[in-house]
Pre-mRNA-splicing factor 38 (Triparma laevis f. inornata), 109 residues
Amino acid sequence: MLETITRQKIYGCRYWKEDCFGLDANGVMSKGVELKYAGSTFGPAHAPSPFICLILKLLQISPDIDIIYKYIEQTDFKYLRVLGLFYLRLVGSTYDIYNHLEVRSSKER
């Protein structure tokens, strides 16, 4: 799902090695609560953001879709919600995407 060069940069970054190693879905949720922004890579070296590191971790562990729905349904932490929505957009079925993404975007306009 992520390009090889992006994955390699993620595997080499400090955040991945120190904070993402051994995380499960609950650990990803804890780290998602701490997110300050959503992004991919930044700076001249194209360093990966914590957000994209957590996306890769979710892709690796493939949590149950009900856990992702919990990320999306909570309203206290907007970047955790964005993490869930982004992951759902990557791996969700057409039905899931329509019922969760499209409905949310029309409600929030």
